[in-house]
Amino acid sequence: MRTLTAQDLSLNTATVSKQWDLAECIDGCARHGIGGISPWRDRLQECGVDRAAKLIRDAGLGVSGLCRGGWYTAEGALTQAVIDDNKRAVDEAAAIGADCLVMVVGGLPEGSKDIVGAREIVTEGLGKTLDYARSAGVKVGIEPLHPMYAADRACVNTTKQALDLCDQLGDGIGVALDVYHIWWDPDVADQIARAGKDRLLAFHVCDWMNPTQDMLTDRGMMGEGVIDIPAFRQMVEAQGFDGLVEVEIFSANNWWTKPADEVLARMIAALPVI
Amino acid sequence: MRTLTAQDLSLNTATVSKQWDLAECIDGCARHGIGGISPWRDRLQECGVDRAAKLIRDAGLGVSGLCRGGWYTAEGALTQAVIDDNKRAVDEAAAIGADCLVMVVGGLPEGSKDIVGAREIVTEGLGKTLDYARSAGVKVGIEPLHPMYAADRACVNTTKQALDLCDQLGDGIGVALDVYHIWWDPDVADQIARAGKDRLLAFHVCDWMNPTQDMLTDRGMMGEGVIDIPAFRQMVEAQGFDGLVEVEIFSANNWWTKPADEVLARMIAALPVI
Q1: What CATH number does the domain located at B20-66+93-101+140-147+154-268 have?
Q2: Chain B partners of A118 at a C-beta cutoff of 8 Å?
Q3: Which residue numbers delimit the Xylose isomerase-like TIM barrel domain (chains A, B) (predicted)?
Q4: Mutation for B interface: A148, A179, A212, most B CBs within 10 A
Q5: Partners of A104 in the β-ladder
Q6: Where are the domains of chain B?
């Protein structure tokens, strides 16, 4: 495995979403020597896409991803509004030079119990976004989300399922793997090997707290929980992954309450357990 | 599919665990015309195994399972104490004539991040219990638990993984499938078909609330949530499953606060959505 330094890390802006706006995140990364950033779209739009692109470029940061496209099921069917919003997301990803557009595909439509149907909507939507993304030179990274989010956030829930979609949809699409979502999966080692370098578009880290108090906002700093993070880094690097290691932590009662500079320092201090 | 009646239902005692002891559950099932029961071991031991067996027999109830054996990782390694406790569970299941001993296999050992190692402990433990269970004429039902319980309750998290274990361990072992744990799984239909009648030892129902407020105790009555329960019943019945449909609901803020007779009446009222 590589010996990681702060330059190999990327700050997902959600990690300090209660403390800093995007400009502050960019400045913070530069100050701490963190090599990359991954903005959420609301923060990007708030900053202004062109201004953000310039700030990121001037700070010399890599962009490990843009969070997030997807939500294909948000309106119950694949509407033009949903398709158009994903096109805008592709444009934004291109503007900031993101390694990929991370896709959180959406859960069950309101009132629906039809997860099979939801997955069909998602497949069709991904295909449409991918067509546009290819023309824009943007890679699309499907993020399989933990099965506990199948109803409300994403009905793509395993690495195998995401790769099956990639097989179906062709070039230009891969997976964005977050250890939080995949650590439990008995099939994950085989699937990471199946993915191969070209489809491993992003690698996200945080930790699974045991016990977990909240299904969304009780994620841990690397080392605080039970995930064998180095085992996963080894798996992706064995396939040739050499991109930024993105830190994305939702933590309402801990990390979101601390000074952001302290959070970034702790990310760097956690390098030995990544 | 069969047309279900109350006689096809089984009450898992956890559903009214805050209201009734085992004797009251048995009496309640008989009064409501519910055909079966599935006791938890603490309630069984509190009642006394021989007395419980007689009460169940006298009430004419089926026994869809005994909850639960397993927890092989509880002491960090497969200790004699853990093995012996599982033998006692087998004896208890035999004494009450349970269709199977339901296995919640255990999560990560205290302080461990080694889920692969935990799964090895579980496999060895299941093998030992199975040897004993065969001699006692008891079937062992592995319950794959939702991946959100991988750390703290069970590191067997998919139907495929459970069936792989069954393949490895041989006769006398199968799966106890709860829609709550498996509804999200994109591979579940194929795996239920793979299981076949002989390995479909139990079928549990409740519902997934959207949103879910608590990872353990916010399960819904059938129909309250987003699971297409009839789709799952169709899958297991297509394989020949004709056993009791067991209702197991953990619901701290709703069903555990209501009079137990009301809960049983609602179970029966939910028959059309099972």
Answers
A1: 3.20.20.150
A2: none
A3: 29-262
A4: A148
A5: A70
A6: 20-66+93-101+140-147+154-268
